[in-house]
Design goal:
With 529 residues, the chain is α+β, with helices and mostly antiparallel strands. It has a 13-stranded antiparallel beta sheet, with helices on both faces. InterPro entries: Pilin-like.
Length: 529
């Protein structure tokens, strides 16, 4: 904790960006004589990670923070390993604790890439009616693990060429599914030395459903770039369920596209042909001579709203209407050429791993809907101040400029840059939410499977221990069988259940046999002796 707190707000208030700005003149005493220069602490006392981080930030605005972790993450992993090992040694009869004590936490934290985190910095200053926000996650030994889920190097934001000039919301996100697969294999080997690859293959060979692809196939095929394009139209009245008023919300046109994900249809994960029905309100499948497949409702809801799923080449898209998809592909006038977009992204990195753009019209549509709710729902209005404190976007005024954020993943850092209505911005949020969220969605099932198999091993070890103790008791006492409760009184304290299993009915016989228990989730685990 001392390491984590040592370089927080004190250094954030005193340090300066002398590494990336021209220093002012100083007096003979060494103090700054210019308001544009603040002296750094002596080199001998300076964080070795400060200058690489500070070089990407802006000092002197509304917010500035720098934190040096200086190996704190590695120490946390080592400490956790030591603590769990000691706890396990203190409870040798608790097989669940023994299993937890065997987990190599330090190695797993390194595989996840967290131990490489050396420093973190953020800055924010007022830029007209917006805030210019920047953040740096610095990893001098390389960006690894969960931090590579959005790719390992920045790319041109190609999706901008699909977004029409009057787009209101644009998102591009690079997804590296291979990073998840690599972590699963590495962690499996760390937890099961010598058998990790076999264990990982066993898990990944399982199918997501009875007829679908295996998890291995899904991860092998899911390297993609996701694009979202949204355009708002004229407002329409939207009835509020269980309320006596309507909201004025904009009519929405959208496109969600994913590169290299056409296999979802061609491999039958989305059974397009089976979804075609002949009734008047059903779905129809259309195929053109160029190989494009479209699944669309046979009856349009409105002139601009008739959702469709489209497969073209290796890519797949879900759109509000085929006409909007065709407009996006036409490339006649693009968001890249928009004056609003150019102003929002001025001086941004040319390449990135993720980008988010929101027009002032989109923000104002949100503000109008929010204010309508506050006006018509007193309970919501009463929470406005509190919501604005915890969620700054809940309290923003109408906007006169568009906002944008970009995240880049370089060899040794993750950098975000944004112009946003609130200090702090979208960049840092995009980094953390995308990384953690995708890890949770894709990797947690793998770790849950690891936990389930660890439980099975712990229960099997309990049964093995009971069988061995029973045979020893039979040999020493000259009996033909013995029950588990008798053993518990004779040899050791009762074994603690791992997953709700009951050992009280077990009987060990001199001729051998099979011990079986049933867990809370209905799984039967047995051991032959």
């Amino acid at each position: 904790m001392k390491i984590a707190f040592r370089y927080t707000f004190l250094i954030g208030c005193l340090v300066a960006l002398s590494a990336c700005s021209k220093p002012g003149k100083t007096t003979t005493s060494g103090s700054a004589s210019s308001g544009d220069s603040i002296p750094l602490v002596p080199v001998a006392n300076r964080s070795p990670n400060f200058e690489p981080v500070a070089a990407r930030l802006d000092l002197g605005g509304r917010n500035y923070m720098f934190m040096d972790f200086s190996g704190a993450m590695q120490q946390a992993g080592a400490s956790l390993t030591a603590v769990m090992s000691n706890l396990a040694q203190m409870q040798p009869d608790n097989m669940q604790m023994m299993m937890l004590g065997m987990i190599p936490y330090e190695a797993i934290i390194k595989t996840l890439g967290v131990s490489n985190l050396a420093a973190y910095g953020v800055s924010s200053y007022e830029d007209g009616s917006l805030f210019r926000n920047k953040s740096v996650v610095y990893m001098p030994d390389g960006v690894e693990g969960i931090f590579t889920i959005s790719g390992t190097e920045p790319m041109t934001i190609a999706g901008l060429d699909m977004a029409p000039e009057n787009t209101d919301i644009f998102v591009e996100y690079m997804f590296n599914s291979g990073a998840i697969k690599d972590m699963i294999y590495t962690i499996a080997e760390q937890m099961n030395p010598g058998n990790g690859e076999q264990f990982a293959q066993g898990f990944l060979s399982a199918r997501a459903n009875d007829t679908g692809p295996s998890w291995q196939e899904i991860l092998d095929k899911s390297n993609t770039v996701v694009n979202v394009v949204v355009r708002f139209g004229d407002p329409i009245d939207v009835p509020v369920p269980e309320e006596d008023f309507t909201l004025k919300a904009p009519n929405v046109e959208f496109m969600l596209s994913m590169k290299n994900m056409a296999w979802l249809v061609t491999d039958g994960v989305i059974p397009v042909d089976e979804m075609e029905v002949s009734d008047e309100m059903g779905a129809k499948v259309y195929r053109d001579n160029e190989g494009t497949t479209t699944l669309q409702s046979s009856s349009a809801y409105t002139a601009s709203w008739n959702p469709a799923l489209i497969v073209q080449g290796q890519d797949i898209a879900i759109v509000s209407h085929v006409s909007f998809w065709q407009e996006c592909l036409s490339g006649k006038t693009t968001l890249r050429e928009s004056a609003k977009f150019q102003e929002a992204t001025a001086d941004f990195p040319e390449k990135g791993n993720a980008m988010f753009y929101c027009s002032d019209d989109a923000f104002n549509a949100y503000v109008d809907v929010r204010d309508d709710i506050y006006e018509n729902v007193p309970e919501a209005a009463a929470t406005r101040a509190m919501m604005s404190f915890y969620m700054p976007l809940a309290g923003i005024p109408r906007q006169d400029k568009s906002s944008a954020a970009i995240v880049t993943v370089d060899q040794n850092m993750i950098f975000s840059d944004s112009r946003w209505p609130t200090p702090g911005g979208a960049g840092g949020s995009m980094t953390s939410v995308s990384t953690v969220g995708l890890l949770a969605a894709m990797a947690i099932p793998a770790f849950q499977k690891v936990r389930e198999q660890s439980r099975e091993k712990a229960i099997t070890n309990n049964l093995r221990q009971i069988a061995a103790a029973g045979q020893q008791y039979i040999l020493e006492e000259g009996v033909v069988s013995v029950s588990y409760p008798k053993l518990a009184d004779y040899f050791y304290a009762p074994i603690q259940p791992v997953n709700g299993e009951d050992y009280s009915e077990l009987v060990i016989s001199e001729d051998g046999g099979v011990l079986e228990v049933t867990t809370d989730n209905g799984e039967t685990i047995s051991f032959s002796y």
